[in-house]
Amino acid sequence: MATNLSSPTDVALQQAASAEPLRELFPPIEPYDSGFLKVSDVHTIYWEVSGNPNGKAVVYLHGGPGGGTSPSDRRYFDPATYKIVVFDQRGAGKSTPLACLEENTTWTLIDDIETIRNHLKIDNWVVFGGSWGSTLALSYSITHPDKVKALILRGIFMLRQSELKFFYQDGASHLFPDYWDGYLAPIPPSEHSDLMAAYHRRLTGSDEHEKLACAKAWSKWECATSRLYVDKVNVEKAEKDNFALAFARIECHYFVNKGFFDRDDWILHNIPKIQHIPCFIAQGRYDVVCPARSAYDLKKRWPEAELHIVPDAGHSAKEDGIRSLLVGAAEKFKNL
What is the pTM of this model? Predict the structure, then answer.
């Protein structure tokens, strides 16, 4: 099922199949507590808690940014053991105002995580995040290392310019040329030299029709490329107005602002601050949204981290091998 890189010099990556059966998600559960928390004069965020009220706390950080959460996000964790905290980041999901870019940065989201932790009277917790959720999980851990018991990460994304250019300018386009045409469609050829900037002008502009059309094209590109096999149901999600607007506007806002980091390698540069924290990483070999190069670079910088390459997976946490590893990692950290 996966290869564990025990050493940063291990470059063979044999992709040996695991003899262990695939782990499934835990059965659906409902929150036992939820609410809305005002975190600024502008933003109110939705939060919920499920599982064991007296259990070990874990916080789920969703992707995007702007992707929001879903009921299935609770199901990676044993509800008998874990106190499961899920929330929608600023402007996403049930949080309000929807798709709002004001006071919406990596650092305000980190502050929100701490606000939620304090509101729920949690001392420290396991932090779980994939894609942009991995960016936020790493950034939060670097900023508040004493609050993090362990990290469970998937589809590593460090918001470096090389990663953004591969997916939004030239790279993944060579693998999904049919869907790339749809991504190019709203942008005149004269602006193709900087597609993120072209999208940003429209997603923050005053033409509401053009804004929505661009939001759907941007979102469809990511939804189409996020799995090893294109999932038409996932692609159709990009046609939902509210989802597309929040997803595209907030992602583009973060990306043109370089994640609000003061250097391109901010996460890698600060890894020594969190090297003592147990870290598990599941990475799809054929992830084109967040290519394996980033997970591998992180592993080289952080030899103690446990990296598993899933040989038959793309980006999505819902793919069998990745899902199984994430559930297994949560089981592994039960005894921390």
Answer: 0.95
